[in-house]
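ok so i was messing around last nite and threw this chain in just to see what happens. nothing serious, just curious
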Amino acid sequence: MRIAIDTDRCIGAGQCVLTAPRVFTQDDDGFSEVLPGGQDGADDPMVREAARACPVQAITVADG
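result:
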């Protein structure tokens, strides 16, 4: 699975971090990013839930 964050769309709501804290973090400006090694946790079902929880749909989770 591949996780992508549209940084132009992200508003820094932090729902992804609250939902899947082992995969997502927020940078110094408050915008979401995948933690180093976070792609390894892409099979965690909470990653898809984090994508659904994003208020601006900035997270894409794709198979492959």
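not much to say yet. The beta strands are 2-5, 24-26, 32-34, 59-62.
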